[in-house]
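To whoever picks this up:

The nightly regression suite flagged ER membrane protein complex subunit 10 as changed. Nothing in the input moved, so I suspect the structure step. Input below, exactly as stored in the fixture:
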Amino acid sequence: MIATPHKKGSSLSWAGRALSLDLTTDHFLSLVGRSPNHQLIGLLELVSASGQSARFTVFHRLAPLQSAPIAKVPWTIRANLELTFLTTPATVLEVPDDRQITVSSFIPQTTSSSLNFPTHTNATCLYQLSVVPSGSQPPPEEIDFSSSNKISSSPLCALDASGLPNQKVQEYFNIWLRPKPVTAKREPNILVTEGYDLMGINWATSKACTLSTVPSDPQQLHRRVSQSLANQAQWKTRLAVRLPERLPQPVLRPYPIGPAPEILPDGSVKPPPKEQGWFAKYWMYLLPIVVLLILGGGAPEEEGGQGAPAK
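Regenerated output under the current build:
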C-alpha cells in the first residue's frame, strides 16, 4: 500500500510491520508507529493536533573500532527529534492499550562536515548514532562503548554512496519505545498516556556491507564518505517508530483429573461404580498366604524317643 500525502516530495509506504516515512530536510510529516499483529497504532496526518510531546537529541560520530578504550571521540549533534503522544479513541484502534504516536519534527542542527576522521582511522571505522532525551548528556565518549542499546554502529562503507541510485544514501532509522503506565483517570473510550520510555535504536543504509568488507583503497573510501557526509541533507531518511510486540494472553484451562463422565441414552450421567470393600480389593494377595499356611504342615517330629526321666 502506497499513499502520497498532499505535500510534494513526500511518500509513505507500508513496510509490513510498521508504517515508515520517507522525508528530507525541507519537509516533515507525522509518522505513526505500529506494533505487530497488523494493527495500527494511529493514523497518518500533518501534525497540527495538540498533545503531550517528548524531545530527543540525535548524536553521531566517526570512531575506529578498537579493542580497548585507548581514546575518546566526542559526539556531534545531528538533529532534534520531537514525538507527540495524543489521546486516542479506543474504538478507532480496536486495541484498548494502544496509543497514537506522531513524529512532529526531525530537524538537523549542524552540517555533517563537522565530523572528522579519527587519527587512527582504518577500514573498520564505524559510523555511530545515539538518541537521548533532550537536555541529557551524550553517551560516553569511549570508542569501544557498546553496552547501551541506545547506540547503533555501522561500518564506514555503509556511508559510501557510490553505486547507489542518484548517488544518494538511503538510511533507515528505527526507534523503539515502551509505553509508560496509563493514568487511572479515564474518560469513556479515551486513553491518556504518560509518555514513552526509549528502549533502543537501530540505524542502517541501503548499502550492503559488513565489517569484514575490506576496501581496495581505504583513502579513496574516506574521500567518498566525506563527500557523502557533506551531502547528508540530500539523504533519503526512512524513520519508523515502533512499540514492543504484544504477545497474546495465555489461555488457562483446568488440568483434567479424570476421564470425562459417560452419558447414558436418557441423557443422564452414568454414576461412578460402587466402592468395593477391603477384602474385595485385596483377596488375590491374601489367597497365596492362606494356601501356604494350609499345605505347609506342622512342626517336625523329634528324632529318637527318649525314656522317661529318672526318678
